[in-house]
């Protein structure tokens, strides 16, 4: 799973939060409203380049039947995060140690949630 740069992550956040596909111009406007991203001078061509990279990474799909093209996330944020966690665990030499460290770092509420999920 490819890692995301700051602008890619900001764009994915917008797409994950939206129920609808969005055009590059719409995403540019939404990014400009976000405080964490300095995108006021962001060109639409830059947004299109980032969307193209995200499409190549398999994170977004482009609706080509409309003009301008519209983009949507391929997976949910939860699915993406789970895949990242699975990938990170897969690179560990000692999976048990990694899982023990992870479980030892979660809150009591999260630990109870894990117990419930494992029991299901």
TrEMBL record:
Molecular function terms, GO-annotated: DNA binding
Top-rank taxon, per record: Bacteria
One Pfam assignment = Penicillinase_R
Q: Which InterPro entries match?
A: BlaI_family (IPR005650), WH-like_DNA-bd_sf (IPR036388), WH_DNA-bd_sf (IPR036390)
Keywords associated with the record: DNA-binding, Transcription, Transcription regulation
Q: Tell me, what is an example of a GO biological process annotation in this record? A: negative regulation of DNA-templated transcription
Which protein family is named in the record?
A: Belongs to the BlaI transcriptional regulatory family.
Report the protein name in the record. BlaI/MecI/CopY family transcriptional regulator
Report the source organism.
Answer: Arthrobacter zhangbolii
Lineage start: Bacteria, Bacillati, Actinomycetota, Actinomycetes, Micrococcales
């Amino acid at each position: 799973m490819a890692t995301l740069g700051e602008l890619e992550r900001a764009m994915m956040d917008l797409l994950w939060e939206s129920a609808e596909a969005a055009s590059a111009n719409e995403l540019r406007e939404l990014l400009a409203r976000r405080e964490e991203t300095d995108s006021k001078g962001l060109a639409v061509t830059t947004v299109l380049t980032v969307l193209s990279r995200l499409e190549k990474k398999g994170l977004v799909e482009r609706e080509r039947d409309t003009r301008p093209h519209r983009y949507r996330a391929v997976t949910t944020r939860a699915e993406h995060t789970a895949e990242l966690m699975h990938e990170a665990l897969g690179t560990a030499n000692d999976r048990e140690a990694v899982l023990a460290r992870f479980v030892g770092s979660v809150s009591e509420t999260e630990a109870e949630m894990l117990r419930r999920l494992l029991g299901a």
